[in-house]
Amino acid sequence: MQNLAKLSIGSKGEIVQISDNSLEQKLLEMGCTPGEQFEVVRKAPFGGPIAILISSYILSVRQEDARSIAVKVIDK
Amino acid sequence: MSEKAIKIALAGNPNSGKTTLFNAFTGLKQKVGNYPGITVEKKSGKANLSEEFKAEVIDLPGTYSLFPKSMDEEVTQQVLCNNENVDYPDITVVIADASNLRRSIFLLTQIIDLNMEVVLALNMVDIATKKGVIVDVNLLSQELGIPVVAINARKGKGIDSLKETIISSIDKKPRFSFLEITKLFKGVIEQANKIRGIENNFASFMALCKQKLSGEINNRCALNQLCKKEEIIPERAQAKETVNRYAQIDEVIKVTVKKGKSIGKYLLTKKIDDVLIHSVLGYVVFLAVLFLIFQAVFSWSAYPMELIDSLFVDLQKFTVNTLPQGLLNDLIVNGILAGLGGILIFVPQIAFLFAFIAFLEDTGYMARVSFITDKLLRGVGLNGRSIIPLLSGAACAVPAIMSARTISSWKERIITIMVTPLMSCSARLPVYTLIIALIIPADDYFGFNLQGLVMMAFYLIGFLSAIFVALLLKFIIKSKERSYYIMEMPSYKIPDWKTVGYTILEKVKVFLFDAGKIIIAISIVLWFLSSFAPGNKFDQIEEEWAGKADSEMHISAEKLEASYAGIIGKVIEPAIKPLGFDWKIGISLITSFAAREVFVGTMSTIYSVGDNDIQSIQTRLSDLKNPETGEAFFTPAVGISLMLFYAFAMQCMSTVVIVYRETRHWKWPVIQFLYMGVMAYLSSLLAFQLLS
């Protein structure tokens, strides 16, 4: 299974599952529900946060948090 | 009239235009207070809904759901979910961004499920339409079972019809609940209702999920048992609720929004981001922005500050000459007017800094600053947004500490506030200039001016110690909150100038009226200490010098020595002697508490220089001999020790007061005062003992 941190800019995918409990709730509330599609749009320099386009807005999360977000890559 | 005043709560996601709507509702009739016991700012204001309907509007902190993740969000929960709360509204207006409907109405549907009166203000429907997102407003209202009004808060469009809708919706509950929570947890919610003695499914669900609603302390045990019996794990139950709610929202979106998701509309934002969060250009732009802010707070504000200063000097002169001589005259001139001038002098810096901050927040740039600096600053317990307070601290800690409010994590905000006064502020500059000129030769080393190098070293000491203390505090301060960095990056937009204006006004008001009172009180105390002496010492001094040459100069010097401040200076002399200071410097340390630059003035009085300009104080001080050794008193050891003391010690009453105002607790300014004092004492001690 892929996680969000591994995706490169431009890749598209859908959320599968979030394994960190407190993170999960926050992300779910912001619309990152399983099955929701997204696109990786930015990665901050020096291993900083990663930004995705999801539910028509841009959301940014830290790399280490992105590791607990399991995703499925969608082929273009 | 008061019988027709209703309470309106404004709720919504961050960046939804909530504050703009609040400004449109209330105009200048706003006030900023605090929720009891916590540091969260409470913004409320008065609005006229119609000729006979008046309303009190509360701007609730922005949140994405009713399950709070921070102190700010907890306020929103407590106001909306507890009908015994003093701020519990008669009606709630939820504002949602039309081009971001899916996430925006999540919070709305939770509020609907609390079965309270609610109206949806759908913001920027016109802009969404242009972006290709067409929302069927009437159908949305049907699907949600509540009134929906299309508005554009910035342009003031739809505000009147929103007001009419609010009036006609009072006492009208939603037509149905959005998510049938009872079906998700069969029978459990009904049992929870019974335990709580209230028939409110969603509130009972929240209580089951360990949320602290009203009267829950008594029911906690029974609710926990219910969870155990029915095998309900709060986190899982909450996740289940959220997922199901979104599934239902998606159904609503499907029928009410046409042409749904379009990625193309981010083109402009994407182009700007290509520069602003570029791995090189991004930091260059950020440094340029910081430089501009620093220029504004440091140089531009110098003009209005000089104006205020000269205005007060004239006012003081005028008062001295008009009012009859005596104690009252002295109190007004040197106590009250000096204090008042000392407060107003901060206004230009506060106004300039917040003009920039409001501008950067409103355009959406601030979110990018966090994005590119998060990794770098998190290591030392700071936040991307700590950069602005830290840098502004190099001009003045007072506006800088006020600007730490934009940091959402409590712990990171406290750390930023605690270390900002270590940055070399502009009030330290006259002190450094005077001492450096005394002890450092104006030679060039490798093409650099030595005096300039020492000055730079002291700026560096300020910055490095701030980072070092931040790192320490990161491990010392415990926080229940987890540091999240899950942030929306809003699309860029042209700032709303009204919002910028309101922000400046609000910050200046808060400073003048909240902090100002305490600062005046302290400056009167300081005036008393340096203007009074026990017994009739002052009369004796005046008699002694009457008719002699330069009498005025010597009288003021001897009076200061005899005053309470002078007595304190002598009392602390044994404590500061190991640092190389005598009682005269001791007095200056005390009077400097009004503001660091007062050091120069006090030194000139105590050494009876007569003239206040730095040049003449300098010649006077360099001639000074040490009574014990007979050599120059201001050796490099004394000078460096004194400069280090000023670098670290918290000698600024305005900063102490503003830290109290911002943290709402005397604990923080006291800790700050102590730790900075200890740092100052130890470093001066070390420097003096090593160098002499």
3D structure, described in words:
The complex is a heterodimer of chains A (76) and B (692). Chain A contains two helices and six strands. Chain A has helices at 21-29, 63-66, and strands at residues 2-3, 12-18, 37-43, 50-54, 57-61, 69-74. In chain A, a hairpin with a 6-residue loop joins strand 3 (37-43) and strand 4 (50-54). The radius of gyration of chain A is 11 Å and the shape is globular. Chain A starts with a strand and ends with a strand. Chain B has 692 residues and is α/β, with parallel strands linked by helices. In chain B, the strands form three sheets. A seven-stranded mixed beta sheet of chain B has the order 2-3-4-1-5-6-8, with helices on both faces. In chain B, helix 14 (302-322) packs antiparallel against helix 15, helix 20 (410-419) runs antiparallel to helix 22 and helix 24 (537-545) packs antiparallel against helix 25. Classes of the chains: A alpha+beta (76), B alpha/beta (692). Chains A and B meet through helix 1, strand 3 and strand 5 of A and helix 3, helix 11, helix 12, helix 17 and strand 12 of B. Strand 5 (57-61) of chain A pairs antiparallel with strand 12 (486-489) of chain B.
Which features characterize this protein?
heterodimer; A: 76 residues; alpha+beta; six-stranded antiparallel β-sheet; 6 strands; 17% helix; B: 692 residues; alpha/beta; seven-stranded mixed β-sheet; two-stranded antiparallel sheet; 61% helix; elongated
Helix content range of the residues of chain A, please? Answer: 10-25%
The general outline of chain A is globular
Largest sheet features of chain B: 7 strands, mixed
- Uncertain parts of chain B: none
| Average pLDDT of chain A | 91
Number of helices of chain A: 2
Question: Brief description of this entry?
Answer:
Chain A has 2 helices and 6 strands, in the order ββαβββαβ.
